[in-house]
Amino acid sequence: MQIKHLVKSIALTAGIAASFSSHADFVEFSIDENYASGGNGKIIVADKINGGYVERLTFDAAGNFTANAFATFGLLYNGTTSLKGSDIGLNNTYSLYATFEAQGYTGQDDNTQFLIGETGGFQLFLDRNNNTRLSANDDIDSVINTGDDILLGGADVLGPNVATSSTIGNRTVTAFNFDFWNFSLTAEGDQYFVSPEPFSMAVNVTGDFDEFGQGNEQIIRGDLDAVFYEVPEPSTLAILGLGLLGLGASSRRKA
């Protein structure tokens, strides 16, 4: 498969998504840190959550992959301004973390490797004691101290997405862009994310990752940002879904 065909397919799907996004920008949200820290916080207005993750990628001999990740969020942004310091509870008195999973297929053309998810989802948790972690550095199945953690919400529909790793000269450039739809808050999540109302949204997750090779099981790490936006209308979802299916069909046919 020629990479130009992949790029054209991604551009088509991304263009459809952009036509929607132009009418539904990433939105501000308010969180109640009093709920998170037992009355010692305040209302914080932000529009992005930043963090890092560790991920296990498993490849099979048929060109498919399974990804499982554990992400921790320690920084809030409002525009380009980071919200941090002793007056912010996040990463001081409490923390947020998420578990991610996706399944899909892989490919390579010249110096570019790509992964495209076909199904996936995530769950977002509040760790009031700021002590949930991996007991072993690279073992995402070893999450400990979760007994007091609270499920805030999650999504089980994977929208348009792609992850690429390209070698340019002596440099490797990596990036991913994943949308999750059907995001909803639990009753507890409604007490932490207090606006907008209703908080039924989509989540866009972007970031980078370590260099990887498509084979066996590997552990990668990277940084990520998460932002929220309004859920598309059903007709828009259908069009975006067709775009993603076209991307998959095109890349498989030309592989």
Report on this structure:
- This protein is α+β, with helices and mostly antiparallel strands.
- The protein has one domain.
- 19% of the residues lie in helices and 51% in strands.
- The strands form 3 sheets. Strands 3, 4, 5, 6, 7, 10, 11, 12, 14 and 15 form a 10-stranded antiparallel beta sheet that branches. A 3-stranded antiparallel beta sheet has the order 2-1-13. Strands 8-9 form a two-stranded antiparallel ribbon.
- Helix 1 packs antiparallel against helix 4.
Give the overall average pLDDT. Answer: 82
Count of DSSP E strands? 15
> Main sheet?
10 strands, antiparallel
Write the element-wise H/E pattern from the N-terminal end onward. HEHEEEEEEEEEEEHEEEH
Q: In whole angstroms, how far apart are the ends?
A: 4 Å
Radius of gyration: 19 Å
**What general outline do the C-alpha atoms trace?**
globular
Write the layout of secondary structure elements.
Blueprint: H1 3-21, E1 29-32, H2 33-37, E2 43-46, E3 48-59, E4 64-78, E5 81-83, E6 95-109, E7 112-127, E8 133-134, E9 143-144, E10 150-155, E11 157-168, E12 171-185, H3 189-192, E13 193-195, E14 201-207, E15 217-230, H4 234-254
Antiparallel strand pairs: 1-2, 1-13, 3-4, 3-15, 4-5, 4-6, 6-7, 7-10, 7-11, 8-9, 10-12, 11-12, 12-14, 14-15
Helix pairs in contact: 1-4
